[in-house]
Design the sequence.
């Protein structure tokens, strides 16, 4: 038992069945838990991209696949789940000129695979994002690339599980002005409303990533997120801004 509880060995479905019978678990729960035990032996899709996934990011992708909601503040760049392939390539050309073409292609493919999370047929998570206005006005990869990227943001904002807002320059020194980018990940709850897994805040930096899950840390970030969200433009106004800027660039071409 201690090997199972500490993760040293995997849990077989027959073990789950025996334990459920011993504890008197209902049949529907027994079947569900046996199914989960089988799934734990299967590697996630992202393991096929292990050669291009940065250190520690495989943990993030695993958590991302399990979330119910994502709340992200992005002051500098379009978040990965919303980037077009050309926008993503432009970032590599600028920031990682050492990467060869084949490796860049693999990283772009990884990004496209991650984005399927938002359009999957079974329980796609809810994504709420606040972008600084600088993100949508900063030209990455040229005006054609940015025009397509803004069109993508406008299209995604029409999805029922995606909400994108812009923190306008007119908001002044809003709550996000003294912090960097962060993501709050929240996971499905039990039938009585308790968390299966505690919420987690993901903060990425040059030298690694932080995963914060202490109650006071979650509270601090959640409080800041709520203020950033409230100070941002509503989704409809944000979509109108995406389309307006894209039109300005297209007219200038």
Sequence:
């Amino acid at each position: 038992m201690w090997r199972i509880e500490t993760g040293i060995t995997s849990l077989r479905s027959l073990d789950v069945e025996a334990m459920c019978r011993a504890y008197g678990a209902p049949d529907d729960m027994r079947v569900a838990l046996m199914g989960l035990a089988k799934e734990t032996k299967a590697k996630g899709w992202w393991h096929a991209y292990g050669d291009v996934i940065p250190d520690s990011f495989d943990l993030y992708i695993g958590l991302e696949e399990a979330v119910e909601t994502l709340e992200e503040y992005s002051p500098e760049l379009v978040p990965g789940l919303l980037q077009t392939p050309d926008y993503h390539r432009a970032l590599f050309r600028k920031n990682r000129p050492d990467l060869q073409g084949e490796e860049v292609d693999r990283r772009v493919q990884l990004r496209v695979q991650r984005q399927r999370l938002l359009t999957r047929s079974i329980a796609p998570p809810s994504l709420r994002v606040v972008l600084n206005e600088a993100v949508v006005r900063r030209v990455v990869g040229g005006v054609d690339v940015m025009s397509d990227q803004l069109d993508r943001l406008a299209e995604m904002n029409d999805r029922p599980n995606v909400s994108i807002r812009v923190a306008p320059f007119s908001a002044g020194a809003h709550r996000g002005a003294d912090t960097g980018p962060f993501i709050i990940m929240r996971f499905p709850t039990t039938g009585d409303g308790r968390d299966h897994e505690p919420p987690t805040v993901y903060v990425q930096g040059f030298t690694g990533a932080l995963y914060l899950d202490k109650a006071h840390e979650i509270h601090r970030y959640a409080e800041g997120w709520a203020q950033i969200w409230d100070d941002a433009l509503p989704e409809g106004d944000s979509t109108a801004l995406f389309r307006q800027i894209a039109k300005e660039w297209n007219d200038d071409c």
In short: The chain has two domains: 1-42, 51-252.
